[in-house]
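Lab notebook: predicted structure, single chain.

Context: the supervisor wants predicted structures on file for every construct in the current expression panel, including those that have not yet been purified. This is the next one on the list. No modifications to the sequence; it matches the entry in the shared construct table.
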Amino acid sequence: MNGMESKKIKLLLVLVILLISAGSYAQNNELGSWDIVNLFVKPNDKYFLYGEIQTRSQKLTTDFYYHEVKGGAGLNFAHKHSVFIGMGDYTTYDYPGNYKSPANTKEFRIWEQLILNNNIGRLKIEHRYRIEQRWVNGDFQNRFRYRINPIIPINHPGFSSNTLFATAFDEVFFTNLAPYFLRNRFFAGMGYQFNPLFAFQLGFIRQFDYNTTTNGSGKNFIQSTFLFTVDKSKKNKVEKLPSVMD
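Prediction complete. Output recorded below exactly as produced.
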């Protein structure tokens, strides 16, 4: 790694620390944790499987109030793009306390999504479009989501072993009923691709939910993500970006 690359990495690390610090003091509420483990399996050149478990807490190490389990299957096409269908179980609890019973919200969800990728030099930009069918405490709801996720490897041109990367995304959530605009989710962080099997990502995430009564409320988290990839394809390997399915 040359001196210029070292300076870039240090600057990016400083920016991420500043973003996390600013976010943690921007609200009166305490900083929570948002922890994810996901697995991507590609048995051949076209198809892939995906699974994820996730938990969230109101504080960094306690008051765990949410967990989800989800998975599905997808198809790669045109080398850089993909379609996917998934389903999951989502549970929200009251707090303080860890998974305090009874649960406040039980949700079953099915979704369909399209991912389009653009490359500008070494900068990778992922556009994700998702349609969700949700059964929340037995009531049916539709939801629509769009996420833009730029990712840039720092010390290599692509995501090979031992690659440091910077990543950020912004996602908006809509519904077909007034007031239509439901949520905004912003993330900024850094990650490291250790080898083709494993990558780790850490950063700051801000989620803001809108409502017509109080104009909404937000919550800040430190998000940590463990990304496992098993790629059995033999040819025409599609570069797997270390992005989160959530």
